[in-house]
Amino acid sequence: MTIPTVPATALNAVPPADMGKASGVQSTLQRFGAVFGVAIVAAVFSANGHLGSPEAVIAGFRPALAAAASLSVAGALTALGTGSRRRSPAAGQEEVPVLVTAGR
């Protein structure tokens, strides 16, 4: 659900001249976060279970799922804590009003 909104938020927080850098940094960090999360969940699974029997899979799956949920909650709290930052127009630039028409 956050895949399309995160790049838009990152790009809205920087001036137009820095949009390329912001896009690259955001994309790199998003991919790093995904790999880091998979590595943590795999480590938790292997520390608590293995693929040898159904009971061992369940023994590893439950803590791994709890670790994934904890990482998700930590990410959500971080997102809420950072707040919203909107970039202001650069000096000498005016915001252009948008014309909205009613649908027929």
Give a verbal description of the structure:
This protein is mainly alpha-helical and 104 residues long. The chain has a domain of 42 residues. It has three helices and no strands. The chain is elongated, with a radius of gyration of 21 Å.
Structural class: mainly alpha
Quote the distance from N terminus to C terminus.
31 Å
Shape: elongated
Series of H and E elements? HHH
Largest sheet: none
Q: Radius of gyration over alpha carbons?
A: 21 Å
Which regions are unreliable across 5 or more consecutive residues at pLDDT < 50?
Answer: none
Question: Helicity level, as a percent range?
Answer: 55-70%
Strand content: under 5%
Could you give the count of β-strands? 0
Summarize the model shown.
The chain has about 100 residues and is an all-alpha fold. It is about 65% helix and about 0% strand.
Question: What are the key terms here?
Answer:
104 residues; mainly alpha; 3 helices; 64% helix; elongated
Topology record:
Blueprint: H1 5-12, H2 19-48, H3 54-82
Helix pairs in contact: 1-2, 2-3
